[in-house]
Amino acid sequence: MHRFALSLIASALLLLSSLSAMAGEARIKDLVEFDGVRGNDLVGYGLVVGLNGTGDGLRNAPFTEEAMINLLERLGINVSGEQFRTRNVAAVLVTAVLPPFGRTGSKIDVTVSTIGDASSLLGGTLIMTPLNAADGQIYAVAQGSILAGGATAEGDAAVVTEGVPTAGQIPAGARIEREIDFALTDLNEMRLALRAPDFTTAARIEAAINRRMPGRIAEMIDSGTVRLDLRVGKTPNLPRLISIIENIEVVPDQKARVVVDQRSGTIVLGQDVRISRVAVSQGNLTLRVRETPLAVQPNPFSPNGAPIILPRTEVGLEEDVATGLALVEESVSLPEVIEGLNALGVSPREMIDILKAIKAAGALHAELLVQ
Fold it and tell me: Which of 176, 196, 215 is where one domain is finished?
């Protein structure tokens, strides 16, 4: 079963590597971030009403009661000295991202999450909630019905929860009320920040832009930055220039890397992974200890007789050496690595241990990332 699964993995990796060889080019817009063209995080504190008895217990969440009193008083209802016992209200934090060049009146999605002991937001409605940025200014206002996933079933002795009913989203639930001042056309230069810094990729981006545009407007600053000088030659305005540059295709380079997820047993190997000549042996050592105590009864009618417990222990030691010793030749490639490990008949989790050991021996010429 393990060999069949690993064979499927090897076939998939071979297919992916062949496809990557056929379509190795990527657009610059998929490799970089343009300096200044970014979103801004927003956050707000609000109340969700209309819950069917799944809201905060006001005795355990006094901040919910205080926020509810303030809301009612702003609406002209005097509730001084009153005590609430409702379970239909929940205090929440509302988060959103203000997109670059977001204009007043546009709508954005928001995420709503409980901060009290509410058990579910299903069927709730978020009341008008201002959303602030890091500067303390209000940039959007959120309100609307919450789409929460998951469900909870509760009985006298058990509770079953499917999904996360204490968080939900409101598509287009916030309206932008303030814009961020950023004049893109006034810039004389712009930096391209690589999402995966690499000197080779940065040099290829610089060369591709200079071949496409008149004059050498691109200059590589470091492994993660390429600068565009808009004062060189006759370049179009910056928005039009970005539209041209982001569609230029280059072949990105990357480090040889092996990513291991120990929780799920997932292994991802990059195409450039190489292994030097090394011998690999894999086997399982099983130790079994079994206790079977024996009770010995005294003879019948013995005046001072008492049962005696005699210990009995069975110990077994088994070692599975069927996989033997495998030899990995000099500087093998990714398909050969998978084929060699597959020949040992190991499971994915055992393969993780083998890769760690090969890395510790200095034979794995790649960056090993364990998550």
Answer: 176
